[in-house]
Amino acid sequence: MADTILNLIGNTPLIKATSLISNPNISLFLKLEGHNPGGSVKDRAAYNMIKSALDRGEIDSTSNLIEATSGNTGIALAMIAGIFKLSIELVMPENATKERVQTMRAYGAKVTLTSKDIGIEGARDYAESKVKNEGYIMLNQFGNDDNWKSHYKTTGPEIWRDTDGTVTHFVSSMGTTGTIMGTSTFLKEQSKDVQIVGVQPTDNSSIPGIRKWPKEYLPKIFNPKKVDQVIEVSEKEAGEMARRLAKEEGVFSGMSSGGAVTAALKLANTLDRGVIVAIICDRGDRYLSSDLFASDS
């Protein structure tokens, strides 16, 4: 029994993939972040960013918060802000799936949709203008150390614990890069031999949750020295793998998770042995209004 739903953030399951890897000397484990109460890995960062800002006195019940998001962080922030009785406006491109928009509003957040033509970069610009001109406060997931520190405190230790310290490779899609920065920092402290693999989209691929940022929008929390290798995946590969995960492993997830597992399999093909952990960052029900799981896919 938990005292509050916030106590259910983290300690997500780690399961072994049973059909994707044929080499008996390589194990692929999937960390199911959709089991967080808000449905994604972003619950961890959202909670740590809000709770730390409250503890430091940087925000209170009179603050007007604003944040640009592609979806999952917004849902997590909406849920946690509601619990702490905070006002928050979430800004996202208009082509976000309706499930995400409706979920944020269900948690009580104001949702502002910006033109899809300017993407998440345009949503970030809009939020920053409100901070500059209207006195809003932005948690700034792209530059907030409390983002990556949440994974240093929780995700990394969980992976090390649940693999009994045998993990050899960690694979994560890169968006804000908080997950890979924090998990890398912890795992490298346990063993410098653990390899950290980031996932980016190929040129001209659009994969929700994975970005290849223009230099001026590169997250300030990103440190390339904490990533040993970057593997690129295409939109087609990520979508096909998301569908394979559902059909073959019973893991219902989004396209960024498909991208991470695609990269994990590409990595596995280069190894003789290893223990790979890949992040399954959210649940597939966030994408039902898109064509990701269309019957003719």
Nutshell version of this structure?
This protein has 297 residues and is of the alpha/beta class.
Total domains: 2
CATH topology of the largest domain: Rossmann fold
CATH architecture of the largest domain: 3-Layer(aba) Sandwich
Tally of individual helices: 8
- Please report which band the strand proportion falls in: under 5%, 5-15%, 15-25%, 25-35%, 35-45% or over 45%: 15-25%
Alpha carbon gap, first and last residue: 41 Å
Task: State Rg.
Answer: 18 Å
Any overview of this molecule?
With 297 residues, this protein is an alpha/beta fold. It has 2 domains: 167 residues, Rossmann fold, CATH 3.40.50; 97 residues, Rossmann fold, CATH 3.40.50. Helices cover 37% and strands 18% of the residues. The protein contains 8 helices and 10 strands. The strands form 2 sheets. A 6-stranded mixed beta sheet has the order 1-2-10-7-8-9. Strands 5-4-3-6 form a 4-stranded parallel beta sheet, sandwiched between helices. Helix 1 crosses helix 2. It is globular and about 55 Å long. The N and C termini lie far apart (41 Å). The mean pLDDT is 95.
What is the fold's blueprint, element by element?
Layout: E1 14-16, E2 26-32, H1 42-55, E3 64-68, H2 72-83, E4 87-93, H3 98-106, E5 110-114, H4 119-134, E6 137-138, H5 145-162, E7 169-173, H6 178-190, E8 195-201, E9 229-233, H7 235-249, H8 255-268, E10 274-280
Parallel strand pairs: 2-10, 3-4, 3-6, 4-5, 7-8, 7-10, 8-9
Antiparallel strand pairs: 1-2
